[in-house]
Amino acid sequence: MTDSRSVQALFQPFQGGTLSLANRIVMAPMTRGFSPNGVPGPDVAAYYRRRAENEVGLIVTEGTLINHPAAGGSPNLPNFHGEEALAGWARVVEEVHAAGGKIMPQLWHVGTQRKVGDLPNPEAMPIGPSGLDASGAKVAEPMTEQEIAAVVEAFAQGAADAKRLGFDGIELHGAHGYLIDQFFWERTNRRTDRYGGDLIGRARFAVEIIEACRRAVGPDFPIMLRFSQWKTAEYTTRLAESPQELERFLTVLTDAGVDLFHCSTRRFWEPEFAGSELNLAGWTKKLTGKPTVTVGSVGLDGDFMSYFREGSGAANEQIEGLLDRLERQEFDLVAVGRALLADPAWAVKVKEGRTGELTPFTPEATQALL
Dihedral angle at the C-alpha atoms of 293, 368, 167, 120, nearest 10 degrees? Predict the structure, then answer.
């Protein structure tokens, strides 16, 4: 990463609807699992505050579990329901705001990525649109319309609680093969009712969640949707094979009330469709006119999954290509994940040209709240 290139584009203020940020840097949501019994403690609040103190414009929390017994698969994942957990999140908001930052919770349900018997509710069966896991194997019965309605309401309750606690918006996790994305994905959604069929039909579940959240928070509270083409361990999977198909998909989500799209890719520099250099965030902004967040190995010298497969770390990488795209306004915001996990001061060091002082990412960084 060079010290000579101007990084001014990263540090321009952002205004999108009612969301006002000091700069274009977003802390990407990253599962941590340091919330015993689902309750984020003072250490979690301090972890997020450190990023806000070091000029991260917007923090998106790790995935937080909505109020459904099968939402997660570990007692150490943070809940976004219940008096004690919500009090913990209120402390997080207070700390981040005191440091001058903005923060959104990521509302999450893992669907059939939960294993049968997982804690904290071993009796709760995994749920999914057709009861299928990522391989297409049956692990549960298809969700009934009553079950769908209950999950929609649980997302809406999370949105309402986020607004009540003083968060600056919400992010809905609709990526990576979790529950919302299981409805999007043809392999896991084989329903023949109104929640299945073509990609627009398979988007109905997300549309109902977005609409319910919008009703719960009113017109001025930002709703961001994270989506991806790829799935966990299915990196070449695509929801949309063309810009035209992507546009139809995104239009129904925009119409439902999405304010920003967080477009998850493994490598931000890779084109999404042949014949154009635009990545997924670039195409999404072009097709919807909505602000977009790009993400995918920003500041690292390769994609993040290789570090875990190989057990090695990552060198800090140049971001000139990222800055070029941001200056061209292909996207609006840049989510930084593993680089920011390893170094809470990543944003300040980049701003001040102290890139030689950046702490390289290693898998060990995931084992503590640095």
Answer: 110
